[in-house]
Write a structure and sequence with these properties.
Strand content of chain B: under 5%
Number of strands of chain A: 11
Helix content of chain A: 40-55%
Number of helices of chain B: 11
Radius of gyration of chain B: 27 Å
Low-confidence stretches of chain B: none
Radius of gyration of chain A: 24 Å
Order of helices and strands of chain B: HHHHHHHHHHH
Strand content of chain A: 5-15%
Low-confidence stretches of chain A: none
Largest sheet of chain A: 6 strands, mixed
Mean pLDDT of chain A: 92
Oligomer: heterodimer
Distance between the termini of chain B: 82 Å
Chain lengths: 441, 211
């Protein structure tokens, strides 16, 4: 241990164990996390080259190797990994916060959408195969020409009562689905959000299950064009993709019908609440608040530890170079961000808890708090991601020239975090949604 | 008003009357600071709402009015979220069962977060008549005075998150602090370091030098 950093640890004035338990979910949860970390770190199968020195294709293949290995090892984890939360922690330790092509969108959006919007029959058909990874799914909402404004989506789903099928179609270039993670080359199913038409009337966007690749040879299904959208600012291990649908026909049961239905004859039965269709997005926004808290905490960890080790200049001629952490200007850059990471830690606890209780109430038919949840999750998602995004950059700048090197881990943390400001709702638009609710009040 | 009376907790404060401003702001009292955030948010929300009403009175339809006021609306929403985060932070620390030592450290962090927010958004607090120029100067000074209180715990506060080195993937943020030897080792992995003389020497450097 570097003596300067050890000296820092020796000066603390609080009980480390008490705080570590608080931040890691209590004694049992923390013990479990430590065991999971130990299992992953002692498993040599998960070792691999440093991604900083790899090409995009090599990175993509390496993370796919790790992701598929993780699926295969899933059953052997035993009692240690009991629920989804444990499993996602295991996943995090394997992928190191980089995309897991078999989990992130699959478990983050595909499965929750099925859980929230599919009927019991539809769940029986797709949910179990999805959990067993017999099908690989993603969530295709955003289009090349349309993002946060969902009512502007152009993809159509016309119901044909003669054949009891929907015809799903991308009518323009701008309507091509664009961005969904793992859509390009990995997944064989997608939940496609499209404008529903029955009897010539548009009923707004609804979710449809579409098989996009052949289950035998993985080729694109007829009428479907798929591909990768190309290199990005970050997330280059992921095949964020595009999808063009050319009059693709799916059976009537492929519309997720828990909340609103289309009957055989084309009669439309509306959901009790229109915004139930956006439930997955509200969930994801709630979890983005958590990601913002942890990303800022990671950036602060790097910058503060380094600032304890780095010595620079001399305060007075002839004196030894002080640790940069001792300079008030360095403290003024980093300590408010450290405090912010704690404020966000508690905000994310509140947000995730609020999502859980409102979601439970919605399951029982109580929609009274949905609008507030939508407003809070939109506002906090925007507020925390903006702050974290600029905060990571301040942390990088606080590490001098070495912050510019990929060795610092900060450029990659920044590029991986940045999309949070634009996906699942562009931040300014989300702030306006929050403001509309406030003004209405 | 309807939403407030229906029990939407996060916006209930908007309906309350603004308390009389005090001549002296006690920045040591976190409840007082929370009240300042609350009043800033309420003020900015009401400002935006009044602007919408004004636009409507001047003949704009509601959609047009909301669009014209959208810059103010974003400020209002930002202030509301900021208030939510500050208040939630303070409330959590008060509610949690903590040892006095840890509570004191977390309280200092909460004060730093709240005061830094006042300091960085001082214009909005002054605009609402909540802080004077003198208050803002005091606030800047209090932030500076809090820094050495955080200093002895800074490394342990980040350690407590318990991110493993493999998750951080940072030579600079290593737990053991052995940054420099590992920076050298990391750099040696560069493709350019595979050979002493790079192939580009024969192709480009040598012809240039020997021309």
């Amino acid at each position: 241990i570097n003596p300067d950093i050890q000296k820092e640890r020796d000066t603390r004035t609080f009980d480390y164990e008490e705080l570590a338990m608080l931040l890691n979910g209590g004694k049992e949860e923390r013990e479990k996390r430590k065991k999971i970390v130990s299992i992953v770190e002692s498993d040599r199968d998960y070792d691999g080259p440093d991604p900083s020195f790899m090409s995009r294709m090599d990175r993509f293949e390496e993370w796919m190797r790790k992701s598929s290995l993780l699926v295969k090892k899933k059953e052997k984890l035993g009692e240690l990994v009991q629920d989804h939360k444990d499993f996602m922690f295991y996943n995090l330790n394997v992928t190191k916060k980089r995309p897991n092509v078999f989990f992130d969108l699959h478990y983050g959006m595909f499965v929750p959408t099925l859980m929230g919007q599919a009927t019991d029959e539809q769940r029986a058909k797709w949910l179990i195969p999805a959990i067993n990874h017999e099908i690989l799914g993603t969530y295709a909402q955003t289009e090349m020409g349309h993002g946060t404004f969902l009512r502007g989506l152009e993809t159509t789903a016309h119901y044909d009562p003669e054949t009891e099928e929907f015809e799903i179609h991308s009518p323009t270039i701008s309507s091509i689905k664009w961005w969904p993670g793992t859509l390009g080359k990995t997944c064989n199913h997608a939940i496609v959000m499209a404008q529903l038409y029955t009897r010539g009337v548009c009923h707004g966007i609804h979710a449809f299950m579409v098989q996009i690749r052949n289950m035998e040879d993985h080729t694109s299904m007829p009428g479907i064009t798929l591909g990768d959208i190309g290199p990005k600012f970050g997330y280059n291990e992921n095949d964020n993709g595009f999808l063009k649908l050319d009059h693709v026909r799916v059976p009537r049961d492929n519309m997720l019908m828990k909340h609103s239905q289309v009957l055989e004859d084309g009669t439309y039965v509306a959901a009790p609440r229109k915004n139930l269709t956006y439930g997955t997005m509200t969930m994801v926004r709630s979890f983005i608040v958590r990601d913002a808290a942890y990303a800022l905490a990671r950036a602060c960890t790097i910058a503060i530890r380094y600032s304890a080790v780095r010595r620079q200049s001399e305060l007075r001629p002839g004196e030894p170079e002080p640790q940069i952490l001792s300079y008030p200007t360095q403290q003024h850059k980093l300590f408010p961000l450290l405090a912010t990471s704690y404020a966000f830690f508690f905000a994310q606890l509140h947000m995730v808890e609020m999502y859980g209780s409102v979601n439970e109430a919605v399951g029982k038919g109580d929609y009274s708090n949905m609008q507030e949840l939508h407003s809070v999750s939109s506002g906090l998602k925007a507020f925390t991601t903006w702050t974290t995004n600029s905060g990571i950059e301040v942390c990088r700048m606080s590490c001098g020239g070495h912050g510019y090197s990929l060795a610092s881990g900060l450029p990659e943390l920044y590029t991986y975090f940045t999309p949070n400001c634009t996906y699942e709702g562009e931040n300014t638009v989300l702030m306006l949604q929050n403001a509309r609710y406030l003004i209405k009040c | 008003a309807r939403e407030g009376s229906n029990g939407a907790k996060s916006v209930a404060y908007i309906h309350q009357d603004a308390p009389q401003m005090r001549q002296y702001v006690d920045f040591n009292d976190l409840d007082t600071i929370c009240k300042l955030y609350e009043q800033r948010a309420r003020g900015l929300v009401k400002f935006a709402a009044n602007k919408v009403e004004e636009e409507v009175r001047n003949g704009e339809d509601l959609v047009g009015a909301l669009n014209k006021v959208s810059v103010h609306s974003v400020r209002a929403a930002n202030a509301h979220c900021h208030y939510f985060v500050v208040k939630n932070f303070v409330d959590e620390i008060k509610t949690l069962e903590l040892s006095p030592g840890l509570r004191s450290v977390l309280m200092d962090l909460a004060r730093l977060y709240a005061l830094d927010g006042l300091s960085k958004n001082s214009g909005e607090f002054m605009e609402e008549g909540l802080l004077s120029g003198k208050d803002v100067k005091q606030c800047h000074q209090l932030v500076v005075e809090l820094l050495p209180k955080i200093r002895p715990n800074a490394v342990s506060l980040v350690d407590s998150y318990e991110f493993s080195d493999k998750i951080l993937m940072s030579v600079l943020g290593r737990y053991d602090g052995n940054v420099y030897p590992n920076l050298l080792e990391w750099a040696m992995k560069s493709e350019l370091n595979k050979t002493d003389v790079i192939p580009a020497y024969e192709k480009h450097i040598r012809p240039l030098l020997k021309r």
